[in-house]
Every structure is written in C-alpha cells, then in structure tokens.
Design a protein that fits this description.
The protein is mainly α. The chain is built from nine helices and no strands. 65% of the residues lie in helices and 0% in strands. Helix 1 crosses helix 2 and helix 2 runs antiparallel to helix 3.
Length: 208
C-alpha cells in the first residue's frame, strides 16, 4: 500500500463515529447522558495520547481539557471524527501549555521489558491496538521522533483520519500520512527488538 493512500478508518471507528455524532448533537441540546457517551468514546484514546505528551500528568490535563470541551461544546460543528479532532486539539494545547509551565520533557513511565507479556499469535492490527493500551508500548512510542509518535497515536489510537489529524498538528494530510507510516515501521522494529512477535509485523506500516 502506498504511503499516499488513505484507507477508510476501521469499521469499529466508523460505527463509533456515527454514534458519536448523534451523541454530540444530543449533548449540545443539554442531554447529560449523551455527553457521557461522547466522553467514553473519546477519553481512552485521548488519554493515551496525552500520556505520550505529559506522562503521569495525563489525567489532570485530560480533566482540564474536558472542562473546556464541556464549556465550549455549543460552538462545535461537525461529525464524530470532527469532534474527536476538536477535542484532541483542545487537549494538545492544554498539554503544551502544561509542559511550558513545568518546563520538562514528555515522560512515559514504563519498562520496555513489560512488552514480553503481550500475546504473539493475534491478528497484527489487534495486537498493535493491544500494545498501544500499555504504558510499555507508549514507552516505545516515546523513542520515535515526536512528529511520528503523535501521528501514530492520532491515527491509530485516537482514530482520526489524515485530514483531521493534520488540523490537530497544523500539518498537511500528506505529511501526517508519511509521519505515521514511518513511525509504524519504526515501531514494528522496536517491537521485534523487544521480543514481541506479531503475525506480520510489516503490516503495521500499512495500518491507517
């Protein structure tokens, strides 16, 4: 698959985006249950992304971000993917403000050796997603150049397409695709070096 290709998001994300779109519209009308649904759909990926940026302070930054999201929700206009991008943009700005305040580099607190407990006989995409759920995998992502690590997290974990991820990062979609492709390829190499055997680690470079 060419780096320039932009395949559709996985079915799970497409389904979630339709439901998320409806939840956001209802939340804008004051439906608190709908807002909770939107939070549950976006928070897991958002939190993993923030862990790359601010380490153990991710929960606090996420909480600040959701306060702003709730406050400014009425101003949002778009679909489910657009909401993910909008929320992630807010969180990224909060994270960068936080880093400027504390004047420290992003930290991921985990040991790479923890990856040895991951299963090796699963489907490649599923195994990659499972890997991203661990702090150890985030430690591997932290080894990548920052633009690659952010592109991988935004596309594979948060579930944004290249255009939306580009808006979050202030980059062209093509640049995001290239960074994601290179990051996934390098991540596959790190996983193999760490002893994690994927059914076809090379396929990671074609994800998203």
């Amino acid at each position: 698959m060419s780096v320039q290709d932009d395949p559709s998001p996985p079915l799970a994300h497409r389904m979630a985006d339709r439901e998320l779109s409806a939840a956001v519209v209802a939340a804008q009308r004051g439906d608190e249950d709908a807002f909770r649904l939107a939070y549950r759909a976006v928070q897991p990926g958002l939190l993993r992304y923030l862990r790359l940026l601010v380490g153990s302070d991710a929960e606090d930054v996420a909480a600040e971000s959701w306060l702003q999201i709730a406050r400014d929700l009425a101003s949002f206009s778009g679909d489910g993917d657009g909401f993910r991008g909008w929320a992630t943009t807010i969180a990224r700005r909060r994270a960068l403000d936080h880093l400027r305040r504390v004047r420290r580099r992003p930290v991921v607190e985990a040991g790479v050796e923890e990856l040895s407990v991951l299963p090796g006989d699963a489907d490649t995409a599923d195994a990659a997603m499972t890997s991203f759920a661990t702090d150890a995998a985030l430690a591997l992502l932290a080894r990548l150049p920052r633009e690659q690590a952010e592109a991988v997290l935004l596309r594979v974990v948060v579930g944004l397409d290249a255009k939306t991820a580009g808006r979050v990062l202030g980059k062209r979609p093509g640049a995001v695709r290239t960074a994601s492709h290179r990051g996934l390829r390098k991540l596959a190499e790190h996983l193999e070096q760490a002893g994690v055997t994927l059914s076809d680690s090379a396929a990671l470079t074609d994800m998203r």
